[in-house]
C-alpha cells in the first residue's frame, strides 16, 4: 500500500460528506474517493442483511480502486455491517459509532445522554452499548427520527417542514435533563441549526466527524501511510442519477463546479 493512495469514504447518500469535509480540513494533502449509495438511500429503514449487502458492494468497489483506508461514514452501516466490511476487504476500516460515543461520554457532565439516529441504528443499540462501555452508569435516551434523512437528501436543511418534524420528534427528549445529544447519523449535522433551535443552547450536540477525521489521521500515521505533500483531490461516485447528489454536494462543500460519476451495481 502506498501513501499516495486515496482514502475511501462512503455513505448511503450525502450524509458522509460531513465526514469528508472534516477529513479534508484535517488532511488537505490526501486524495479521497467518496461513494454515495444513492440508489439505496435510506439505509436506516432496511434490515441488517440488506444494509450489509449494500455496504459490501460499496466497500469492494472502493477497495478495488486502491483505497488505503476505508471510512464507513454512515452510522447505520457502522452499526450493522462494520465487521462484515472489515472481514471482506484487505484495507483498514473505521466506523463512526465509537468516536461519537467516546466524544459524548467525555462531554456529558450529568451523565445523561440522548442519541438520535435512523431506526436501524437506534434498534441496534450500538451507541448505548458503546456509551455504557466507556462510561458505566450513564443514562441513555435513544430516539429514531426517520424523516430526517429524506429531508436532508431533499436539501431542506433549514426548511420550516424540517423544524416542524424536529419539534415533533424531539418533544419527549426536551422534557428530559440530557445535557448532551449525539447526532447519530451523518446526515444530521446538516440539521444542527434546527436541532439546536429545538433543544436549546444548554444541550451539547455531538457529531463524530472531527473525531473520525482525527482517528483516520492517527491510523494512517501509525501505518506510515500519511501523504505529506501536494493538494488532495476528491472524486465522487454515486449509484444513481448524479445530478441531485452533485448539486447538494457542491452546496455542502462550497464548490462552484464538479459532478459525481455514476457507478450502478448490477
Ligand atoms: N447517513 C447514514 C447514517 O449515518 C444513513 C442514513 C440512511 O441512509 O438512512 O446512518
Question: How would you portray this structure in words?
Answer:
The chain has 266 residues and is an alpha/beta fold. It folds into two domains: 142 residues, Rossmann fold (3-Layer(aba) Sandwich); 112 residues, Rossmann fold, CATH 3.40.50. It contains eleven helices and ten strands. The strands form two sheets. Strands 4-3-1-2-9-10 form a six-stranded parallel sheet, sandwiched between helices. Strand 1, helix 1 and strand 2 form a beta-alpha-beta unit. Helix 1 crosses helix 10, helix 2 crosses helix 3 and helix 4 crosses helix 6. The mean pLDDT is 96.
What secondary-structure arrangement, pairings included, does this model have?
Layout: E1 7-11, H1 17-26, E2 32-36, H2 48-64, E3 69-72, H3 75-88, E4 93-94, H4 97-107, E5 112-117, H5 119-124, H6 126-134, E6 139-144, H7 148-153, H8 160-174, E7 180-183, H9 192-199, E8 204-206, H10 209-222, E9 234-238, H11 242-253, E10 261-262
Parallel strand pairs: 1-2, 1-3, 2-9, 3-4, 5-6, 5-7, 7-8, 9-10
Helix pairs in contact: 1-10, 2-3, 4-6, 8-9
Bound molecules: D-glutamic acid.
D-glutamic acid binds at residues 11-12, 15, 41-44, 74-76, 118, 121, 149, 185-187.
What attributes does this structure have?
266 residues; alpha/beta; Rossmann fold; 2 domains; six-stranded parallel sheet; 46% helix; globular; binds D-glutamic acid
